[in-house]
Amino acid sequence: MTWTSPPKDYSTLYAGHTPPDPARYELDSESDFWTDCIAPGAIHDSTERFDAPRCYPQTREAIQSRILDLITEYQSRTHPSTQIVWLSGPFGTGKSAIQQTIAEKCDAAGTLAASFFFSHQSSERNSSRKFVHTIAYQVAKNLPGTRQHIEAAALGITTNQTNQAQSYDPFPSMPECTGTSLATVEYRPFTTEQALPTDGLSSLGLLLRQDIPIWSPRGGKRALASLVEDDLASQLSTLIIEPLQIAASQSQSQDSLPGGVKANVLIIDGLDECKDEKQQAEIVTVLHAAVVKQKLPFFIIISSRPEAAIEKCFSQLWGPIFDKIDLKTNQDADKDIAIVLRAAFHDICKKHAIAQKTWPEEGDIEQLVRNASGQFIYATIALKLNDGSAPRESLKSILAENKATEHPSAHIDTLFTLVLQRCGNPKKAVVTLLAINRYSWFRKLDVEYFFQEKIDNNLFLLFKSMPAIPDIHSQVVIYHKSLMDFLDDPLRSGNLYLDQHALYQEILPYYLGFYDGTSKRLHDNRIYTRDQLQELHDDFLRFLPSADLCKRDLRQKLKAYNLAWWSALSSPEKLSNSFWAFHQAALGCKRFRCGRVCQKWRKIVTQRCTSSGCDLPPRPIDRLSSYSVIGRWFSSVIPLS
Fold first, then answer.
1. Residue 614 Ramachandran class (φ > 0 left, ψ -120 to 50 alpha, else beta)
2. Which carries the bigger pLDDT value, residue 166 or residue 114?
3. How far from the centroid of its chain's Cα atoms is residue 435's Cα?
4. Taking the complete model, does pTM exceed 0.85, yes or no?
């Protein structure tokens, strides 16, 4: 997708002209009113998804053909019964690769209306908050004749009002305005006594008679942002269904799409990676209602794991419009995995000058296929392990770990364990993965700042590919959600598992090092937002009570820490709430006397809060120890974050 920039010349303020045609400018992620309301990374051809998995040539052909045939039947209306397909399968079975491939084929054929790829690691893509807006953005871009109606609907403007604004021209001799569109309409009362605003870009607009829309770059964002708070059904009806109906009626189309438009495929991938089960069910329910009751003219493909909440929702709604493709029962998976393995080993042999007829043996490939059990992720990780400096030895180690078990994740768990045990410090490698998963904004530089050393090269086997020329600003994304499932399950990860207490104990010193190190690295080309720093600050305070403060090295770090920097990055309200976090017996505090660490931290908190006019707990309570009855009660009623 191309993100274009609007014209830059806003030096002259024009008034009283016909507003520009909205179709003249590409929707723009930086300046138009969609910016804060969509998740660009969820779109199939976004930069964030440059390495998205795709079906390997000559694999998944039967499934692709079945889906494409259903799309053709729906579009030709020969058998229009099926309109929603549920692509279901366990982790690692290639659901996202199939969806990406179908999206690209539909895009090339001009039949793709929109796509949304959920991701558990992205704060923009792990909820339904930006789901409808992102789809509406793409529909406005991909379906000719719909954009002006979608933008007008987003701002609560009727078709008549839009036409009135476009036809009213009291100053026809004025030059044409450029650089804005109907996407920035807002209502503003105006009288003839008012003077033209002169504050540049923020006031750019048409000042027409009262109740005629005024074009302002800020108004659109405010109006659209308010729609984000509506329920999904209202958003879908307002931003997509009603504008489509208006566009179709104006084009006198016999279909529910504007005349000549064939882009009607909607692809939704990874619904199970939407973190809230209620939101998962709401998405399916709302789309079903839109198809059945409001005649939404889209062919919808939804992929997910067969999670209980999703399975229940589909079973309650199931009817003639649904079709299910279950990858768990697909008979072609083993054959397709063998194709991928043979092709990849061919490349590995060429890379390492190995005679392909001698390695790997056919039995080795057959064993890998059996271990994969239909999971393409197993083949992917195994090939990554074999593509190092010693591929023969790597393959031997993988096959040597062959376990006779019926557990579906046993073999992929073995690969995860092998990768982590190759790291110089396996426990730190686990902490690194958990931190990357927690902070979706972490880039390579952030990870190295936080842990104060380079990322272990073995961990890159568990990350998604980085750009061809990676740099310190490249985003670090965990390859597959199944890795986090592995780390969260003590039965699967064994001695690599870290419970909450152990994790807090391991990670707390790195929070201190990050804040202290950041103050010394401001010359580096990395800017942290206040929200990002605040998130780390809040977690530090949340983890502190669970840490083993009896450890001398941790107490020494707390005592020697650069508190001025930490205080400057923290809001007074957060500091006030953290007042009691350091008053603990483990830090040397007694009944009526604070330890040195506590004195130092509470002093800077008191100074900052006092200077900012923020209240602190009463002084008599302040002198009570953290292990007294009243002290414990008071600590319990003051949250740390």
1. beta
2. 114
3. 16
4. no
